[in-house]
Write a structure and sequence with these properties.
Elements: H1 3-6, H2 10-23, H3 29-45, E1 54-56, H4 60-64, H5 70-74, E2 80-84, H6 87-99, E3 107-109, E4 122-128, H7 137-150, E5 151-162, H8 172-180, H9 194-204, E6 206-214, H10 221-235, H11 240-250, H12 259-262, E7 265-272
């Protein structure tokens, strides 16, 4: 399959899911930290308990990772739709949800650029690093238009996307080479700068109320995961709390003026006009 097609193809993500199953999914403190960070962000910008219908645009973590946070939301508000382009991911996410008695009947296999949902049927959209897996900026804009279509007037979009201003984020030509060499675990797509994202949202009919950069842990994941696992093996669990404290302290960089240089993701809260 050509590189330019990988990010938008369901079969690519089905293959990623199959490989993930064969390789196993070890639990780690970075995943625990990711889950907490996302839950804190959502709680800061939305009252999920008293929100109507909620749409989450990605089920990969719900299928495979301790970093998932949708199940936590579903336990306080059952009006949840989850979508993913991969049928393998959707089916596994449903199985994982059933293990903890979470209703997964509205988990759908579909492309976020072509949502099979009615206009104005959603009150809150949570899109967590989904739109940065497309091969072009046009795909990102098309996905945002679909999210705007299904949101009711006054509805909220909480969106996170790769931050290319991050000091440890490599140039895209390096990312493309990394993918061609087979070193990337999945397709890494294009992203938008904070200004580009704001302009795109405003053109679609959103008002951006808040914008920040968060998750201040350096790239790449494989290096961070290796460092964590090495420390945990060396300390046999004695360093776990210290690792948690380091990760938590890094998030305090979100309050600094340099946050867009250290945060992995841009995060925006946008309201539909």
């Amino acid at each position: 399959m050509r590189l330019s097609k990988l990010g938008s193809g369901a079969e690519h993500w089905n293959q990623v899911a199959r490989g993930r199953l064969r390789g196993g999914v070890p639990g780690d403190l970075l995943a625990e930290h990711t889950r907490k960070t996302y839950l804190d962000l959502v709680a800061r910008w939305a009252d999920v308990t008293n929100t109507g219908m909620i749409l989450k645009t990605d089920l990969f973590q719900e299928a495979f990772g301790q970093a998932q946070f949708l199940f936590d939301i579903a336990q306080v508000n059952s009006n949840v739709i989850g979508i993913d382009i991969s049928s393998e991911v959707v089916q596994r996410a449903k199985r994982q949800a059933r293990h903890i008695d979470v209703d997964a009947s509205r988990y759908l296999c579909c492309d976020v650029r072509y949502l099979p949902l009615r206009e104005h049927s959603i009150d809150l959209v949570i899109s967590d690093s989904t739109l940065d897996h497309f091969p072009s900026e046009i795909d990102i804009a098309n996905a945002l238009k679909q999210l705007g279509r299904v949101l009711r007037v006054g509805g909220t979009l909480i969106l996170t996307i790769d931050n290319k201003s991050n000091l440890t984020y490599p140039p895209y030509m390096v990312i493309r080479l990394w993918m061609r060499l087979g070193l990337a675990p999945y397709f890494i797509g294009k992203t938008l700068s904070p200004t580009e994202l704001r302009h795109t949202l405003e053109e679609i009919g959103f008002a951006v109320e808040e914008s920040t950069a968060f998750f201040h842990c350096p790239h790449p994941d494989v290096l961070v995961a290796w460092l964590e696992s090495s420390l945990r093996r060396l300390g046999r669990g004695k360093f776990d709390n210290a690792i948690r404290k380091v990760l938590a302290s890094l998030e305090r960089l979100g309050g600094k003026r340099t946050r867009f240089l250290t945060g992995r993701y841009i995060a925006v809260k946008a309201v539909k006009h």
